[in-house]
């Protein structure tokens, strides 16, 4: 048996045992999970319904004849319980509850008719809520006892699973110890023989081959090593043309690097500078190769900055702390990071490793710098956006604590707190949507035939307080007959509210906002038009990018820079399109389309 078969057999045995343990653990967890789900559905939910029924009875006990809302709430919870009967005797209790509930409703109706006729309401039915309460407690007791029994059974199954898993784990440990004792020895013993043979071949005598004593993997290594010795003998006799070819190939690789590369010898004489570095320095290769670095650094500031870490007492710390090099390249800002490595070579004559020079590289990190700037801007914006509503909520909360404040003023302040809270919720929801998209979770849609008129009606009603605060007029245009579209109602409404909120934010006081809905072929188009400052054409695509913010004339930077990006994701996933039509000084029109049902 060769070494591969031995090792494979051992690993297969371990894998089989691990799979067995994993399979049994998975099966046990599934059983426990199924038991817990059954308990939650069959018993715990019935107990929750019983608590709701008791709360309704508490309310009903105070006004047994007049409180129809309490009766309705009790009946609704009882209807849910009737669909969740799982225990023996529970159905009889539910039937009794239904009968008493029906009697209570009849008595309430009689009481209302008596009051309407000027008669005295009937007496003697105040006990019915208490009878309902007793039956409710009986139903809850049935489910509580069942819950305790099922929990105990689940605990017993869990204990048994733990004992079985412990047994499997013990077997795995014993098998592992057996493999540790046998497999390494089977591998190391032939290696000792191979090491002894290699010592004879390291005397620079490429004709001393390794004897082949076996046909297993180590025999294959010996044959491969002997072939390598033959190739080394051929390399020693290589022609000058072959060496030149290899040198040219290496030079081609260096010249095509996208990083600036500088090679210095042990005396800091320039041996190589690739085209990228020459372009960054603004010097041709002829003015660099063969010259001392100390001379060139006096003529070029960038070269001086590259060599500065070499003169530091602690070069590694100096390179790590060195700022990014800011270079203007073809009219654009670019940032480069410096890296320095020592070159060492083994001297066969002295049999020592010797220092032979330095390699300095400049790596373009402009994209990373931009991403870092975007992150900083985003954090600053979110901090500002969170601070403003929190400060407003804090101030308004302090005002509400003043008992002398009139009721209408309290209502107005409460409205402000609600608006700021909704603003915070919207920002958190945007961040959660982005985190789900970045994590690859995608967008979960509930696409169904939808009437966009209802979506528009709900969205415009939602932003009415904001319209009132800025004294804006909302104009609405749509055809009398509008076909249904395939859309997710919740996400489409979110998009429209976001567009309306942006339009309100940038509209001057007293201006008009226009919402238009129209059929456009196989799509329905919804547009929101404002009379704000407008957006330059070169920024039309940028505003739909994440964290994008365009300062207006007053320096206002808007929200988190996520709303339009998420809105476009929502619309595109539903098969539509979101875009903007705008010019500076002429307002903006944001539009999106959704496919018509059956188109």
Automatic annotation (TrEMBL):
It is found in: Membrane. It is a multi-pass membrane protein. Residues 90-117 form a coiled coil. Keywords: ATP-binding, Coiled coil, Kinase, Membrane, Nucleotide-binding, Phosphoprotein, Transferase, Transmembrane, Transmembrane helix, Two-component regulatory system. Residues 246-291 form the PAS domain. Residues 185-237 form the HAMP domain. Its main location: membrane. This is histidine kinase. NCBIfam families: sensory_box. It comes from Hymenobacter monticola. It catalyses: ATP + protein L-histidine = ADP + protein N-phospho-L-histidine. Its EC number is 2.7.13.3. InterPro entries: BphY/WalK/GraS-like (IPR050351), HAMP_dom (IPR003660), HATPase_C_sf (IPR036890), HATPase_dom (IPR003594), His_kinase_dom (IPR005467), HisK_dim/P_dom (IPR003661), HisK_dim/P_sf (IPR036097), PAS (IPR000014).
